[in-house]
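Sequence only, no structure available. Ideas?
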Amino acid sequence: MGDLSLRLITMLGLLTVLVIIGLVLDYLHILRRPMRLGFWGAIVGIVIGSMLTYNALLPDNNFFGKVFTGIKTEQKIVALTFDDGPYPPYTNQVLDILREYQVPATFFVIGQNAENHPDLIRQIAAEGHQLGNHTYHHVDLLTVGRKKSEEEIDRTNQIVEDLTGIKMTIIRPPHGFRDPLVMEVMAEKHLEVVEWSIMARDWTNPGIDIIVNRIVSKVQNGSIILLHDGDGIAAKASRAQTVEATRHIILALTAKGYKFVTVNDIVSKQED
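Reply:
I predicted one. Tokens follow.
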């Protein structure tokens, strides 16, 4: 399939042209009878464009292809996931906490960061955590073509496999953004697209208590929790709040009877 027929930006561009044409026709009093077809056609175009954008940006829909955001289960299981690392010293500190409480997690790593911090990638794998692909440059895949998307994914897969011997099976597109082409490329790579069911916007550093409350107050059986141990490839922002929040989240959910598992563990429950 060609890129042009599968790109969100192309679809939105075509709709924008149709909206403008409709509004111009209405302004010129053309197609106004019997029901102002130009005006209402423009409204329909705006609604369709909004729906396409909504389905590309929000995590919990399958409009452009199947994504995994958790499961409904009677088992009290949740998956902790961390994006944008590895990023010392914060990834190291998260790993210390996970080791202290014997909690497995899933790390969606940026290839460039993995390349710069190979020891952390090896440590994540050696300590029993799952690794997932988060592209090489943390690029918005909606803005690049097929070739660039494939390069971003393949390069990260290869780096992790070279460092650990592990072939990754899951991917989280940066920001969760995807369109038909993005989903097609990931399917061709045999990668399951994993989004999330709860996030705390911890990258904004709103405060430890706020991060914890945003997670603990919304968690359900089978939830996938999104946190950030990294800061993209900029590696400038502090993740100290996320580190400390991770400890409190583990303690609070453990007290509620939850067991922490990897994303693959939850995916396997879906397939049972």
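Strands lie at 77-83, 106-109, 130-133, 170-171, 192-193, 198-199, 223-228, 259-261.
Hope that gets you unstuck.
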